[in-house]
What we know:
Layout lengths: L14 H13 L1 H4 L6 E3 L13 E6 L3 H12 L3 E10 L2 E9 L4 E7 L7 H16 L1 H12 L4 H9 L5 H7 L3
Parallel strand pairs: 2-5
Antiparallel strand pairs: 1-2, 3-4, 4-5
Helix pairs in contact: 5-6, 6-7
Amino acid sequence: MINFKNIEYLKFGNIRQKEAYFELKELKIFENLKKYKPILTGTIPLEIDLPESDLDIICQCTNHDEFSKLLSELFEDYNEFKIKSKKYNGVKSTIVKFKTDKFKIEVFGQSIPTNHQNAYKHMVIEYKILNEKGAEFKTEIINLKMNGLNTEASFAKLLGLEGNPYEELLKFEI
Length: 174
């Protein structure tokens, strides 16, 4: 299994993954956010991204004011910069979005350890499913996404999961 906690694997991936690696290195996101245990999640690490897919970085933060201040200092000069704090599933979360020349980037912080956050758990489950089901399944996921379904809904449809795709995927056993 890929060590998703270290972005070095991106250097050996497809063109978009390599671009993501160099963008993240140039921005020094992982170095600057090291104390928040950042992990790149989402579709780019899984090679099921679309051209408009963003780089999703999850972090563990307990002091949202300090986290917000740092993110503002680092990224407020980038295009489309937005920052907000709100509750997701009852957990206070701070979200920063901005855009570089090559990527939309979202940094998401919660007090939950990053390897226990849903975004990470979804990615690991999806990775295992993709490895088990093979290239044709991966192509079907991408096609469903191109036709408007989000990632979790695409997996749920192909796996025959009923109910809330986010919740059902977390329960899925490989």
